[in-house]
Specification:
The structure holds 2 protein chains of 2 kinds.
Chain A lengths: L1 H31 L2 H35 L1 H11 L1 H22 L6 H8 L1 H21 L5 E2 L5 E2 L3 H5 L4 H29 L5 H35 L1 H8 L10 E3 L2 E2 L5 E2 L2 E3 L2 H7 L20 H35 L6 H27 L4 E3 L3 E2 H4 L5 H39 L32
Antiparallel strand pairs in A: 1-2, 3-6, 4-5, 7-8
Chain B lengths: L1 H31 L8 H11 L3 H18 L1 H10 L1 H21 L5 H31 L16 H28 L3 H32 L1 H7 L2 H22 L3 H23 L2 E3 L3 E2 H4 L3 H31 L7 H5 L11
Helix pairs in contact in B: 1-2, 1-3, 1-6, 1-7, 1-11, 1-13, 3-4, 5-6, 6-7, 7-8, 7-11, 8-9, 8-10, 9-11, 10-11
The chains are: A mainly alpha, B mainly alpha.
Chain lengths: 462, 349
């Protein structure tokens, strides 16, 4: 499950945010009659097509796995927190419909009709994210039920179960995070092109638009990240203790950057900043921070789990801070000189930013999932109680098969993307103006179409 | 009360998946048996074009079915997935392979590569419905009850095998009927005859399987057998049979649009008949609808969410199918993506 989730989550930024970025580019293309922007939007939508197909597949597998791996959790809590998934399923349904209309509407629909049909797409994606994040937030801070004598949840209050304390912080952190990630990854692709000397308008536009979106959101995300950490501090003190390696409940707690926790509570390696953790948590050195030892050892993450969560958290924060610097650099140059920073180092960093963002997405997920151990439903159900009774051997076999299939599918996915972009680049470099010679299908989308009676010549340009 | 309504929603969603997803699997089945790269080129071309815009939408029904199951009937979900572990896990693997194969085949250029992706897609189009059908068959026999651990017996019995085969045959039937219609839409008269013949053949196969199934389920799955051979269940099954025969006749008259309606009708009716035959049980003779139901507040919310969703999703869905059947949806061609935009001359900064 962890593996498939970890794979699926890498696709999420693109599922949620790529449509938004593509639509922005599409809007620019239609509004200004910018053929370059339209070409970029079309190509991105082709990437979106393959990406979404893989995403839907991994998503379906996930819903199967809830049953295959966690029958205990779903059997007992399904009716309490399952509604989020219900919302998600419908939103996903809507998204699948809209994406089909958008992807296959390029040729025959009127330009603005086509654009408006695509416009609800990011909204549907946000609604889907709402459902999923609500479910995860519930696992972190379960609410909206009371337990009867036999420990079965009764008196379900759906509103409380959806809007749990962790929901708000998690949701906004997630939404901004995925848009940011998609922006940096897309921009990163063109940054590489620019670095290789392809400094034409196509590459500059392909870089600037997504990068600007991401750069604007980066500082926002920094603030949101800070606020979610404080929510964890209040709502899930033990998880906070794990991510910050706090052993004993105390005031004036130091902050460790990286480092490793040992069974006796000491931390080796890493950088120790006195008092900082308390200041970050409550703005005062005298803030009391709950330690791991405040609960019995069986109710808290092991030292290894704590170290993993801590590292994931620190990597996420470090990358986030670096990205803020990058965004400031970019903002400074844009505002001062209205152009991209000239240094090739800027482009190198920008190219790396995409990969770094994907890393932080994984780290964020690890922090929230590993930090919650050993609970699958925080303080209500342990992972071991939720897991399937199927024999470990068959689970491992199945895991092996799934892993191989996923590696193949993702490998093929990347190969296909690389091949596609390679073909486009060859075409851009080699072909003379206009489409490939003698190509019957070379008519432009939105252009006059031989078969259609509703052909519109309205291309929006002068 | 509310749990009965949710059970109906679940049944309708299952029927919708059987029809929409089934048509898709059927297309995959015909892709599998279309023959070599040269001989199967035309049918495969049609299958690709017909499926492309709608296959993702068709697939989402399954996610919806699962979500209703665990939100509305958590115990049912837990029971089914514990007892039917292997077939469902295999179906899940099949789903991945199928989706990946189909999605990646299109952008792949080289023939060998297309072949590999195509084969993966086609084979899993056969396996996934078989295992899903086998799981349903196993549930109908009553071999599964809350607390049942995963075992081979639950799904490797006569009823399960017949149910799996019936599912595959039904998908092939739907696929052939839809492809006949698509062949007309895409102006390929040779393929109209090609798929029509196949639709008729699968009907014969379906009839044979159904008769065998009747004999097998008599002792193996008595509760569902009785439900299907008497009362409302029987009426629905008979209407389904008439509807299937009507499909065959409509295909003969090349009224492909109506044939699609009757074909869907016959499959959906069988699914509904099966659901009614299980009443009042979700899992025959061990778990009733009311025993399995989750908290009633959740069920009410689930209904509310579903109603809002129908309002939101309905119109775009209709629009999608309308535009699709009118041929307004076309994939971007390679040339669209390759064309060089004006103003692409490199500039020196």
């Amino acid at each position: 499950m962890a593996f498939t989730l970890a794979s699926h989550i890498l696709l999420v930024p693109f599922g949620v945010a790529l449509p938004a970025i593509t639509l922005l580019m599409h809007y620019r293309g239609l509004r200004k009659g910018d053929a370059v922007a339209l070409l970029l939007a079309r190509r991105w939508s082709a990437v979106m097509a393959v990406q979404f197909a893989i995403g839907i597949v991994t998503g379906t597998v996930l819903s199967f796995e809830f049953g295959l791996l966690w029958p205990g959790m779903m059997g007992r809590w399904g009716d309490v927190f399952g509604l989020g998934f219900g919302i998600e399923a419908w939103a996903f349904f809507l998204e699948a419909i809209l994406i089909a209309l958008y992807l296959y509407g390029w040729r025959r629909l009127k330009p603005w009709t086509h654009f408006w049909l695509g416009l609800p797409l990011p909204l549907a994606a946000l609604m889907g994210a709402f459902g999923i994040v609500a479910a995860n937030a519930w696992m972190n801070t379960p609410r909206g039920f009371t337990l009867d004598a036999s420990g079965k949840p009764v008196h379900v209050n759906v509103r409380q179960a959806v809007f749990t304390p962790m929901f708000g912080p998690e949701y906004w952190h997630f939404v901004v995070g995925v848009v940011l990630t998609a922006g940096y990854v897309v921009a990163g692709v063109y940054a590489v092109g620019l670095l290789r000397g392809r400094r034409d308008r196509y590459h500059r536009l392909g870089f600037t638009l997504p990068f600007t979106v991401a750069a604007i959101l980066t500082p926002v995300q920094f603030v949101l990240g800070d606020s979610i950490a404080r929510s964890v501090f209040h709502e899930q003190p033990v998880k906070f203790a794990a991510t910050e390696l706090v052993w004993k409940t105390d005031t004036h707690v130091p902050e460790y950057l990286f480092g490793r926790l040992h069974a006796d509570g000491s931390v080796s390696g890493g950088i120790k900043v006195p008092q900082l953790d308390s200041i970050l948590a409550g703005f005062r050195p005298s803030t009391e921070v709950t330690g791991l030892t405040s609960v019995p050892a069986s109710d808290r993450p092991t030292v290894i789990q704590a170290t993993i969560a801590h590292w994931a958290f620190d990597i996420m924060v470090t990358v986030g801070s670096l990205l803020v610097l990058l965004a400031l650099w970019y903002g400074w140059c844009r505002l001062r000189r209205r152009e991209l920073p000239r240094s090739p180092w800027f482009l190198r960093c920008a190219a790396l930013a995409g990969a770094a963002c994907l890393l932080t997405v994984e780290c964020g997920w690890i922090t929230t999932e590993v930090g919650r151990q050993p609970w699958i439903v925080y303080q209500n159900m342990r992972v071991s109680e939720a897991v399937t009774g199927t024999r470990a051997a068959s689970l491992w076999t199945m895991f092996g098969i799934v892993a191989v299939v996923y590696v193949l599918a993702f490998g093929s996915f990347l190969t296909v993307l690389v091949k596609m972009s390679h073909r486009w680049r060859l075409a851009d470099e080699g072909a003379p103006a206009g489409a490939a010679a003698g190509d019957l299908e070379g008519d432009t989308p939105y252009g006059p179409r031989p078969l259609s009676t509703t052909a519109s010549g309205d291309r929006g340009d002068e | 009360m509310i749990e009965d309504v949710v059970a109906w929603v679940l049944l309708v969603a299952v029927a919708a998946y059987a029809c929409a997803g089934g048509t898709d699997y059927g297309a995959g089945f015909w892709d599998l048996v279309a023959g070599g790269a040269e001989r199967g080129k035309r049918p495969r071309w049609l299958i690709d074009h017909a499926m492309e815009p709608v296959w993702e939408t068709n697939n989402v029904w399954l996610i919806f079915v699962l979500v209703i199951m665990w939100t509305g009937f958590p115990v049912l979900f837990q029971t089914v997935f514990s007892a039917m572990w292997l077939p469902l896990a295999l179906a899940a693997v099949g789903l991945v392979l199928r989706g990946a194969g189909f999605a990646l085949r299109k952008p792949a250029r080289r023939l060998t590569r297309r072949r590999v992706y195509g084969a993966v897609f086609a084979v899993s189009s056969l396996l996934t419905p078989f295992f899903l059908g086998a799981a349903v068959g196993g549930i109908a026999t009553g071999r599964v009850a809350p607390g049942t651990q995963a075992s081979g017996d639950a799904w490797s019995n006569g009823t399960s095998v017949i149910a799996g085969l019936l599912t595959v045959a039904a998908t092939a039937f739907l696929g052939a009927v839809f492809l006949t219609a698509d062949a007309r839409r895409f102006d390929a008269p040779d393929l109209v005859g090609y798929f029509r013949l196949r639709a008729w053949c699968t009907l014969v196969v379906l009839a044979v399987l159904a008769i065998v199934g009747l004999a097998v389920t008599h002792d193996d799955a008595p509760y569902v057998h009785d439900g299907l051979t008497g009362g409302v269940g029987l009426v629905l099954v008979l209407i389904a049979v008439v509807s299937a025969l009507a499909t065959a006749w409509l295909l003969y008259r090349v009224a492909t649009g109506w044939a699609r309606v009757t074909a869907i009708g016959s499959v959906a009716l069988v699914v509904v008949a099966w659901g009614l035959a299980q009443r009042p049980y979700l899992i025959p003779t061990s778990l009733t609808v009311s025993e399995a139901a989750g908290a009633s507040t959740t069920l009410r919310w689930l209904m509310l969410v579903s109603i809002i969703a129908v309002v939101l999703v309905g119109p775009p869905l209709v629009l999608l199918y309308r535009l699709d059947t009118r041929g307004a949806l076309q994939p971007l061609t390679e040339a669209d993506l390759r064309q060089t935009a004006p103003g692409r001359e490199p500039e020196n900064p």
